[in-house]
Amino acid sequence: MPRKKRLPPEVFKIPVTRIKRGYYTDKYFVRSRHILKMDRRHKKVLMQVYTHKPGILCGMDEAVAILRLSAEHGEDLKIRALYDGDKIAADETVLTIEGDLATFVHLETVYLGVLSRGSSIATAVGKVVEVAGGKDVLFFSPRFDHYLVQETDGYAALIGGAAGVSTDAGGSRLGVAGIGTIPHALIAAYKGDTAASAVAFERYMPREVRTTALVDFNNDSVGDTLASARALGKRLWGVRLDTPHDVRDKSVKSRATRTLGVCEELVFNVRKALDAQGFDWVKIVISSGFDARKVERFVKAGVPFDAVGVGMAFYRERMEFTADVVKVDGRPCAKVGRCYRPNSRLSLVPPPSK
Known about the structure:
Elements: H1 16-20, H2 27-38, E1 44-51, E2 55-56, H3 60-70, E3 78-81, E4 87-88, E5 93-100, H4 101-104, H5 108-131, E6 136-139, H6 150-160, E7 164-165, H7 168-171, H8 184-189, H9 194-204, E8 211-214, H10 221-232, E9 236-241, H11 264-276, E10 283-286, H12 292-300, E11 307-310, E12 321-328, E13 331-332, E14 347-349
Parallel strand pairs: 6-7, 6-11, 8-9, 9-10, 10-11
Antiparallel strand pairs: 1-5, 1-12, 2-4, 3-5, 3-14, 12-13
């Protein structure tokens, strides 16, 4: 979902004071700033940023905010950039920065890291969305990383095409609330009674929160799906299948290794049981161990699911960005193997209004 309107700098809660003093910066950049200033070497450079892999760009709005707020006289920098959500080609220039190197050399570590993380997640989500055949892809990844990265990661997931995120922090930059089903812990509190936990959930949650029962607790997904549907009727929006990768649901007859966890046969069994009992409105959400390859397999096999939650797989994609000085005082000057690569897709980022 390319965004042609940039998020304002204040959205990102950037620790400007620490960034300015080099707290998050590779030491050689901090020392370079000191040397340039002490030697009064104020050279106007063109810095060029790119990545070797194609993907979905994300983190650009935050990178621009870092440059504007944490460079000395950040408003004087001439910045041209692509937008969050833009698809990028390998080696395509995504950002250029023109200005006095001594004023922003200390920021390279920070803005490259922001671009790398955001683009990695957006690209990973985009790959699943691409093969999901129009099914909703849900970002269920926060439990696999530090909580302080949730705002960055959730934003990147939504930019990559995710239909929802599991925490409020993840959706905060775009004003999206977190979504979720029912955890195993709640079912345990109801002594393993899946239907009872779903009834309690529906009773105490606001009407706008859709009730989705988690049905693998007893390894009887068909039985607990039907029990939940009978208990809630039309108030049940859906069920989530989350069988662990080393467990085979009791409804699955095949003994093949690939029928462990949430497999094709299990989803077909649940859909068939729901339809046979007149619960055809109930949606099916699948999760546990899904990545782009497994989602694509399910779609090609015509497996009747409505949404898929993906967790750890979204953290396996890696996009790495590089910054190079390619011009000094208007003349070509770059290390061997690098050169200025202009990109007509870049848009000038206006300086903040005074």
